[in-house]
Amino acid sequence: MKLNSDLTINGKLHRAGDEISWTAVYPFFLFHMLMFGGSGFFMAYHDNGAPVGFLYMHGGFAIAIYLVFYLAIFGKEEVQWMAINAALGIFGIYSQIDWLLSLFGKTAGSYPWYVHVIPFLYYVLYTFLLWQAVLDISGARADESKRKVVERSYVGISLGVYAAFHFL
User: Fold this and answer.
1) Which of 8, 14, 83, 166 is most exposed, with the fewest beta carbons within 10 Å of its own?
2) 58-74: pLDDT as tens digits
3) Average pLDDT for 138-161
């Protein structure tokens, strides 16, 4: 993957346009975001959850930092598409959060809309990172014909998963 901005990774400065290995980015971010996203999820939906102001402060700060890294690593156009796809994918996100909450005997409708903002944003950022990882690990980022197959497969699998969660 090529960087879109200068970025220091593991103490080494990489310039915009430098090629970096996916192993330098994805393992760290996927784990890190899983931890922060998980804590945001539990703060939002736990019976004794954090106050909404703290939820927004804790999650909003982390999300802002992730966006800075996303812009530096993936570029403005990719991040814009992340936002567009998130807007289109609200049904999928809602159904998956509703399914996750059902594991704890709750529903997404049990909470006011503003409690869902931070978990939804974490979900968007995490699935975007997964998508970028799929592109790089499969080698589809640089191969247009492979990219089309991977894109169609990803959309088909995502729709199948969303539908399954919705109907469970």
Assistant:
1) 8
2) 999 999 999 998 898 88
3) 88
Give the pLDDT band (50/70/90) at residue 8: confident
| pTM of model > 0.85 | no
Please state whether 43 falls in left (phi above 0), alpha (psi between -120 and 50) or beta: alpha
| Number of Cβ atoms within 10 Å of the Cβ of 158 | 16
Buried b (16+ CB within 10 A) or exposed e, 94-128: bbbbbbbbeeeeeebeebeeebbbbbbbbbbbbbb
Size of the chain in residues = 168
For residue 87, give the nearest of 124, 119, 60, 115 by alpha carbon: 124
Q: Which residue has the tokens 């990719």?
A: 78
SS3 content of the chain, % helix, strand, coil (to 5): 75, 5, 20
